[in-house]
Design goal:
The chain contains nine helices and ten strands. With about 220 residues, the chain is of the alpha/beta class. α3 (about 70-80) packs parallel to α5.
Amino acid sequence: MTRIGILGTGRVGTNLADKLASSGHHVLLGRRSPKERTAAPAEGAAPGISFADQRTTVRTADIVINATPGDSSLDRLTALRAELAGKILVDVSNATGDADDGLPGGLCYPGSSLAEHLQAALPDTRVVKTLNTMLFTVMTAPETLATPPTVYVSGNDEQAKKTVTALLGDLGWQSAWIEDLGDITTARATEAMILVVPHILRRHGFQPFAVSLAR
């Protein structure tokens, strides 16, 4: 059983927590403060989910998932540099500013990526970028889409990517749907994919989708 710490207690974090806990992992959801609001758990949510402050969450976890807002993730995680040393950090966030309607606007790191900045700021942490090119519900239920979706993986450490790939399997991703793009610099490509998302959402609403590779 892997101890997984999730930073971010909104819809993304709690959705991942429920599926990972139901797959047999012990999940710790990290709050910034005891008063931080947490998204309501899904009906029939799995046991095995507990809560702690973010520093405790990172310190006790084997794998840490960053599900915090991407525009503030770098500052938040840099403050946890010591606790993240030696850990795998799975970054599922996109760093964008908000458009007038609150949907994602321009990139915070044009020509680069949040994942690259995290890896540079956390040299003793193995950063892996994934799950950032889809609506959050698809992260844990890829089989519900009519077309087989793609999940992309970027990272410098091959063993860390293998560990994360196994974790994706626990989330329901078939091996044929997982595309390893290469080192962490390839994350700038998948993070840029977020720019198409607000146009899709404005036209079709919050229907499940993934930005996928067709062969």
